[in-house]
Description:
With 135 residues, the protein is of the alpha+beta class.
Amino acid sequence: MVRFTLNKKGAAVVCLWALIPGAAAAPFIFWQSVDAGIVFAAFWLGLCLGWLPARLQSFEGSVTLGEVRMSSGLLFKVSRRVPTRWVSASGRFSTPLLRLCRCCVLVLSTSGSLLVLPGLSDEDADSLLSYLQGG
């Protein structure tokens, strides 16, 4: 059995990615009114720097002989199980910032869903892919 969790540095990069849409939308909200802009900025920063890191740190997963199992959640734990025979493709990519943190984004494609694992450490991704490919 292979167990994996999201790396803290990878989670920080994901939180940085989440700040970008808020920074792009903020001028348009401030244009409407300063009060709305301040409320939006406070909400977005709280979401990206408070809730999202805690949510990402609650993620854990494992791969056994027959299935990939993942669970995450703060208040309500959500579990997903995918049989390994249904995994049809896997993709792994990393940005320069993720490479600096020794992390990657792993995408597992199945017949009915797409599993995206952002902020996974390179070692965990290597062992997970090796296990799924039968090595």
